[in-house]
Every structure is written in structure tokens, then in C-alpha cells.
Amino acid sequence: MQLVVGRIGRPHGVRGEVTVEVRTDEPDRRFAPGATLATDPAGAGPLTVERARWHKGILLLTLDGVAGRDAAEALRGTLLVVDSADIPLGDDPDEFHDHQLIGLAVVTSEGVRVGEVSDVLHHGQDLLVVRRPGRDEAYVPFVKALVPEVDLGKGLLVVDPPPGLLDLGEAE
User: Fold this and answer.
1) The pLDDT value given to residue 8
2) Residue 61 contacts residue 27 (beta carbons within 8 Å)
């Protein structure tokens, strides 16, 4: 599975440097000089980082073979991707990447199937988006008190929701 680690934005200057919207927790590692990144669309890459620098909080990249503003502009909107298998997990057994959670079956602590994780949102607190057949999506805060168990091997995520959390949005 391909994971987006950045999106090329507008050119910076006239020598082919591009701005990057960073979508990784490790920009210094992902965009280090010499790093080669796959792209979406695939035909735009792979791209090799020649130079990386920060300017006013924005990551600027010089990419091998991209010379001039027109060449940089042609890459605008290109997604920079890595293979999810290349991303190591940390030492924390309760740490997961979004792609590991998406698709897991969601059951209550009593074993009642609720739905499936369709997305993970990061808005101050991580929220699991649970797609439920015949109902609106439910948003479950991804905290140990509400999600006591994640079993990747079984493809299962156990929730222990407070009363009312999963009762809203029933189909009529």
C-alpha cells in the first residue's frame, strides 16, 4: 500500500525548487538528500532529493533533473509516496499506522459487530471513523478507555463505548 508523505506545491524561485506540503512525522528522514520517492501519478517520478531546506516553516526541495520554474510547475500537485512496508513501527505496542487500522472489523466488548474502520482523523485527538451498515458513520475517539483492544492478526478492533456513542444516526 502506498502512503502519501508529501504533496508538491508551487515552485519557489526560478531554479526549479518546489514547496512541499509535508504529510509525514519524519520529514527530515523522508526528504533527506539522496532519498528517492515514488510519485502519484507514477509517470512523474521517481524523484530524487538533491537538497532540502526549511524556509519560513515551509519545506523546499531541489529535485534531481528538475531545472527551472517551468519544470517545477509541471510537478505541482504530484503526491510523494512510500510503500507502507518501508515504515517501521515504534517500540510502543499501542502505536499503529492509519493504514493498519482502516478495514478492521469493529466489535463491542460484548462481541456485537458494529461496522468497519473506514478512516482515521487527526484533529487534536485521533478519531476512528466507523462505517456502519444502514446507519450514519460513528466517530470513536482512539483512546485506550474506549478502544481496549486492537488485534491486527484477527483484523479486529474492540470498542467499549459509553452509552449513546453508537446509538445516534440510525436509519429510519
Assistant:
1) 96
2) no
Q: What is the pLDDT of residues 89-133, one digit of tens each?
A: 555 556 777 778 889 999 998 999 999 999 888 776 788 999 998
Task: Count the helix, strand and coil residues of the chain and give each as a percent rounded to the nearest 5.
Answer: 10, 45, 45
Q: Could you say which DSSP state residue 78 is in?
A: P
Residue 66 burial class via C-beta count within 10 angstroms: exposed 0-12, middle 13-18, buried 19 and up: buried
* Residues 142, 128: Cα–Cα separation, whole Å: 6
Strands (E), the chain: 2-12, 17-22, 36-40, 47-55, 58-63, 79-83, 105-108, 113-123, 125-131, 138-141, 149-151, 156-159
